[in-house]
Structures
1.
Amino acid sequence: MLNLKIAKIFYEISEFYTMRDDQFRPRAYERAARLIESMEEDLEDIYKKGGVKALTQVPGIGKGLAEHIEEYVKTGKIKVFEKLKKAAPIDLESFSAVEGVGPKMLMALWENLKIKNVKDLEKAARGRNIRTLPRFGEKTEKNILRSIELSREHRGRFLLGYVSPIVSQMEKNLASVSGVRKILTCGSFRRGKETIGDIDIFAEAEKSKEIMEYFVSMPNVEKVIAKGETKSSARLDIGIDADLRVVPEKSFGAATQYFTGSKDHNIELRKIAIKKGWKLNEYGLYDRNNKFIAGRTEEGIYKKLGLDWMPPEMRENRGEIELAQKHKLPSVISYDDVISDLQMHTTYSDGAHTIEEMAETATRLGRKYIAITDHVGHLKIAGAMDVRTIERQWREIEKVDSKMKKIRILKGCEVDINPDGTIALPDKYLAKFDIVLGSIHSNFKMSRVEMTKRLIRAMENPHVDIISHPTGRVIHKRSGYELDMEKIFRAAARTKTILEVNCYPDRLDLNDMNIRRAIEHGVKISFGTDSHSKMQLHNLSLGIAQARRGWATKKDVVNCLSAEQFFSFLKDKK
Ligand code: DGT
Ligand code: CA
Ligand code: CA
Ligand code: ZN
């Protein structure tokens, strides 16, 4: 699959053009990259079937970009990209996890100090060479060092949403190898963690030879690290490592339990076993005479230890073990409980597909209602709608909605919250939408007190139903704004404002722990994929995974309400 490689190059081209103050190209490349990385179809296949012309049919890809893709398929290179790299040989990838060091800053660092990578940057900062540059100063130098420290923590980790389609495909292929009875990916992936360090795959098979052969020769394997009879490891083309272990039927439950983790959860579990005089490891649960007690299934192990089985997403040693012993585990939301998607963009603002195209895909994915939430307000850059366009969109939504019987389509919007907490569209317009999402898209650097006030004031507006991506964090890019979350949760409960779990792969905002705190305060949460293309609508599951990690149940989530129940819930605030 070429898509991810091309997306990555387009992101870098976008950054290089940003460095050069190019007005339009950065956006075009970035948008294309975003769409390409979430596409199901392979660009190479599209090209081989229909050439450049077929590529230009893909949303977000014009003739120029299609030709880049052709060039890449043919030569493995894109000349424009090579040129840009030659002019400023900056290792962008090494900086991608360092917050606050953007393209403009990189250009200045390169021009003045010939800084090419994070190592150079750290050395310069420690040597106090950065503070002397024009417009940098001591404070910036210190911030840079702090960001480098932070970036070490998530170095080598991959977004769940990035890894997820790759794992599904591998699981499918591995399961079809002859003699394979079961395939299960464990580790942080199975726990639905927002980022994944490596992929731990388990198989139960009649014999291991064939599946091991298949594993090490998969098309997305870049390098075989080890090949054995029961365990092999490989580096995949996207840079992440994957292990495959073939385990005997008798130990399948024990192995998958052990390697699902988390480590902290397992340590507690093992303590319980030891208290009984037993032994627990990846082969099974054994009594004091080393007699096998359980191991075929996970349920068996938990049961013999006196615990209820629990979903993998809960296994973080955050109190779940005690509840499982008392048979008091919450029954967390399941993936099929969610019947709607409450944030998406269309061609009316910065999305790639029409209302009808979005609704069709949403219907196919089983959604019963969706909210179309194009940008309104100040955001000229995201193609925010003006008042006349809004009215045109409402008529189109009504038309599509009455045509499509299987799905209800809500007239929604995503509106900017001004720095003072007022809303960037007058109340008389807000009142006419079925659903209003308020978001912060500017002035991120306010003080904790001011930012908290800003969000609370927005929630106090009776027309604002949902606060979208409430903390503003972007995984591996920026930490959230300064907020007093305790106050936010209390205000959300008081004003009956829903807090969103934005399901976009690098947002997942609220995150797992914030979800848990929100629902402890009686706050309702909502899921929105924030899709900018129909290919992103499946990302709902990423947010659901975080909600399961935050112990949310069906009643905490408005997307589990029927359309009618949800509409009356919305009216309740006003
Ligand atoms: P990752 O890969 O960094 O995203 O996180 P995990 O949780 O997948 O961790 P990984 O791949 O190092 O190991 C998979 C699981 O194996 C882990 O969740 C628990 C189990 N495990 C690994 N090392 C130990 C250990 O030293 N003790 C115990 N009890 N379990 C371990
Ligand atoms: Ca792992
Ligand atoms: Ca309908
Ligand atoms: Zn947004």
2.
Amino acid sequence: MTTISAPTGAAHARILGVGSYRPSRVVPNAELVEAIDSSDEWIRTRSGIVERRWATPEETVQMMSVAAARSAMERAGVEPAEIDCVLVATVSHMRQTPAIATSIAAELGTDHPAAFDISAACAGFCHGISMASDFIRGGSARHVLVIGVERLSDLTNLHDRGTAFIFADGAGAVVVGPSETPGIGPVVWGSEGERAELITQNVDWLTWGTAAEKGLPYLAMDGNPVFRWASFAMAKIGQEALDRAGITADQLDCFVPHQANMRIIDALARSMKLPESVKIARDIAEMGNTSAASIPLALDRMIAEGRATSGETALFIAFGAGLVYAAQVIVVP
Ligand code: UT7
């Protein structure tokens, strides 16, 4: 029998650099409240959101991704030609095909890497981190660019009380590469497809094709059940990620959860009994919920503000439409 060579990869993987892009237009709560019969106070109290960023027409998914990725590559000290794989987590690329990862890879000047999109909603970035780590350790790639990007303002119904104030735009990116020591812990991930209707595009593209007069499809969410699920079930997932990484809450330096709601962030920290010393990302106040982009945006901000420093541990927990979730402990680059 003929045997074939098996792939061989690096012993470990880690995040080498982070970058992000914040759209220029700041949208305060006051701009949205009239259309949804709400108030600045209600939005702040129930979600923690004070303002969010919405992209201008020039700030496309491609443009924001390229800006975030260039910054991540520069900080990682990795040249475009060294990138073997580009993963783009997004739900707001408006073409069914091709994936936007290929044109982003081309604009970045990479040398024809594998490039494809990940459809795992708000958890897409953490799915990408896990895949990147496995690709590098399995020998399929040496450097992987993982981008989380959204222009959710294109998919938001400004008259929907449950979502108009939540969703926002932005991009974050990391370069993942080989490491001598573990830099990305085991992933804890999964799905609950029986609850897929809780967050969904209001109409599928096939139906929309014959109902164009109804306007563009938009994201619809039954917020309260999602809120309760995220606040309780995700604490167990986060704890499992700590356990599988072999650390306790006392050994954790930073907590960077998906920025969905400030009350969810607080509830998770409480349920997991994170000590006061753990630095918590609260980017949602200024950025709203940017889905797949929220974790790299929040991490980049913590690093820029000196709140997260190289070598520290950080716990990611992400959850969203599907329902899907993913969590892992990483070492800050
Ligand atoms: O990123 C993907 C994952 N997504 C999430 O994790 C989001 C999870 N969900 C949430 O963040 C929260 O459910 C929301 C912020 C969306 C809503 O907060 P809530 O505490 O779950 O509010 P609720 O839907 O239970 O509504 C409470 C009350 C209701 O009034 P009554 O029945 O108590 O009189 C609503 O009619 O608030 C009312 N309400 C509003 N009032 C002012 C609902 N939306 C609004 C609004 N402004 N925009």
